[in-house]
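dumping this here before i forget
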Amino acid sequence: MNSTEPNYRHFTMAKTAGTFAFIAAITALFGTMILPFIFGGLSIIFAVLSKGNTIAYRLNAKLAIIISCLTLVGNTAFTTFAFYNVFFNEEYRQQLDETFEQIYGMSMEEYTSYMLSLPENPTTEQ
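structure:
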């Protein structure tokens, strides 16, 4: 058997890498922040594993690596921009606070202080 000839597992892994790259791109377009990192990372791992002992990557694996890297860079930029706006842009935070109050009936600051407060332990007096 020729060691440079790819077997069926290499094709399957390249196809899986392409599928994960597509899912990563779709989830990044819909604005989720965590799923593109998971699927993009899995896509790159499968693409690298699909090479095996062959000389070059298959076209599916190359495209999966390119799409996943672009998705990860774009999602990182989007996530950074979103966190920057929430923490440092006063106008954006005020708009977010108004929307949060319309939906939940309390401001975002009240909600976060309520959620982050530790539960009170009842003290028993003896």
